[in-house]
Amino acid sequence: MPETRRWARTVHSIGRSPPLNVALFAFLLNLPWELMQVPLYARMEQASHWKGIVTCSQAALGDAVLAVLAYAAVAVTSKSRRWIESPRATQVAAFVGVSVLVTIVIENLATRGLWISSWTYAPSMPIVPGTGAGLAPLLQWLLLPPVVVWLVQRQIQR
Q1: How many whole angstroms separate alpha carbon 35 and alpha carbon 18?
Q2: Residue 18 burial class via C-beta count within 10 angstroms: exposed 0-12, middle 13-18, buried 19 and up
């Protein structure tokens, strides 16, 4: 019985891990977003179903990594890895800001063929002036991070 309790405590503590929860919720929110923006990227509509799923899943995993890095940046500046449990508006803004800045850099590198993988926007993708980045990925990182914060906060406080 003590072994079972120890295992249960371990599972419980893992479930309360802020970075793990950030990664989980970021992936779960970003995957449908990636799938919905397929028409905004050149050649994605012609890709096979499986290729589209793999590409969008890889992008969502990258999004989860980006979210964890943004979370860590705020944790470092806040000097607390548990900032997300009771976030201040400035911390949420920093989480969003880091995410948006990294997205702008990645989008610019990728659309120029200088990133790990590259992609091209379809003519239907609006480009945000002054950023070189598409509107859909910028909206993604303006809208989803506050939802990630809210979900993580709820999960950890349960």
Answers
A1: 26
A2: buried
| Enclosing domain of residue 28 | 18-157
d(CA 114, CA 122) in angstroms, rounded, equals 18
Instruction: Assess if residue 8 is contained within a domain.
Output: no
Is residue 152, in this structure, part of any structural domain at all? yes
Render each residue's pLDDT in the chain as its tens digit; 158 residues: 577 776 556 555 666 899 999 999 999 999 999 999 999 999 998 999 999 999 999 999 999 999 999 999 999 999 999 999 999 999 999 999 999 999 999 999 999 999 988 999 999 999 999 999 999 999 999 999 999 999 999 999 87
Contact assessment for residue 95 and residue 104, using Cβ atoms and an 8 Å cutoff: no
Q: Domain total for the chain?
A: 1
Domain presence at residue 6: no
131 lies in a domain? yes
Global pTM value: 0.90
